[in-house]
Amino acid sequence: MSAKVICIASQKGGVGKTTTAVSLAHGLSQRGKRVLLIDLDPQGQAATDLGRNPEPGAFHLLTMGSSPQEAGFVQSWVRFTGRDGLYLLPGDRQTLSAQTVLNAQDKPISAIRQSISRFFKDGLDYMLFDTAPSVGGIQERAVWAADLVIVPTATEFLSVDGLGKMLRQLSALQEQKKWRGSLLGILPTFYDEQARESQATLENLRERFEASLLPPIHRATLLRESAALGRTIFEVDPLCRAAKEYQALTKHVLKFEGAG
Q1: With contact defined as beta carbons under 8 Å apart, do 233 and 23 qualify?
Q2: 179 Cβ contact list (under 8 Å, min separation 6)
Q3: Which 8-state DSSP code applies to residue 156?
Q4: Could you list the pLDDT tens digit for every one of the 260 residues in the chain?
Q5: Alpha-carbon span 115 to 145, nearest angstrom
Q6: Cα(228)–Cα(234) distance, integer angstroms
C-alpha cells in the first residue's frame, strides 16, 4: 500500500501552515505511523521547528532526475528527527532556485508526484508537504501530487480571501489538470473566542464551508514557544488545549483514511 500524500497549503502566509504540518506529522508518528515530512517552503522552518537545521534536500528532490544514482542522492538528504517514525526532507532558501530549474526544464504538473515516487517503497504510511504561499509553480505541483489537502486559514477577515483563492486553485487543478486528490478540510487557526473578528470569521466560515470545516485551533503562545525550542507541542505540553486540538486533527486524518 502506497503512502498517503497530504499537502498543507494556503495562498496566504502566517496562517499556521508549518505548525500544522509539523504537529500533524508528529501526531501521526505517535500513532505508530511512519511519516516523511517534506519541507517545500524556502524558509526551512519545518526543520527549525523540529530542532534540525535547514538543508537543501527539497531543492534536490525538485531538480534531480529519476536515475538510481539520483534517487539515492535525494534519499541521502532524508533526516531522522529523533522521534520514532518521523523523518524529514529539509528545505532551505535554495528551494526558491528550484522554481527556475522547473521552468527551464519545462517540468509537467506531475513533476513532484514523480519525484516522490522514489519514496513509495520505503514503507511509509504518510508523506506530508509544508508549502509556501506562492513559490511559482511549486505549490501547484505539490497540491497535484497530494491525495489530500488541508487548507489552514487564520480566523481573520483577510485570510478568508486567501482561502477563496486556494479553493479556486483546487477546483482548477481538478477540472483542467485532472487532479485526482481532494480537500481533506479547511482548518481555522489562531482562533480567539474573546475577539469579535475571530468569532465573526469562524461563523462566516461555518456558513460558507460547513461540510469542509475542521474544528479550530485556538491561538496559543505555547505553539510559538514550542517552535522556538525546536520541539513540538506534544513534547512541550501534551495535555494543553493546543496539543489536544492537534491530536483531534490527527484522529480525523486517521479516520478519514479508515485507519483510526
Answers
A1: yes
A2: 143, 144, 170, 173
A3: S
A4: 579 999 999 998 899 999 999 999 999 999 999 999 999 999 999 999 999 999 999 999 999 988 889 989 999 999 999 999 999 999 999 999 998 888 888 889 999 999 998 888 779 999 999 998 865 689 999 999 999 999 999 999 888 888 988 999 999 999 999 999 999 999 999 999 999 999 999 999 999 999 999 999 999 999 999 999 999 999 999 999 999 999 999 999 998 765 44
A5: 9
A6: 14
Phi–psi pair at 10, nearest 5 degrees: -155, 155
Whether 138 contacts 95, CB under 8 Å: yes
235: amino acid identity, one letter: E
17-38 b/e (C-beta count within 10 Å ≥ 16 → b)? bbbbbbbbbbbbbbbebbbbbb
Which residue has cell 534517487?
71
Q: Which amino acid is at 252?
A: H
Reported pTM: 0.95
The span from the CA of 256 to the CA of 260, in Å, is 8
Q: Please give the single-letter amino acid code of residue 114.
A: Q
Sorted by where each begins, the domain ranges of the chain are: 4-256
CATH classification (class only), 4-256: alpha beta
* DSSP per-residue codes, 66-122: SSHHHHHHHHTT-EEEEETTEEEE---THHHHHHHHHHHTT--TTHHHHHHGGGTTS
Side by side, which strands form the sheet with 79-83? 79-83, 86-89, 35-40, 126-131, 4-8, 148-154, 182-189
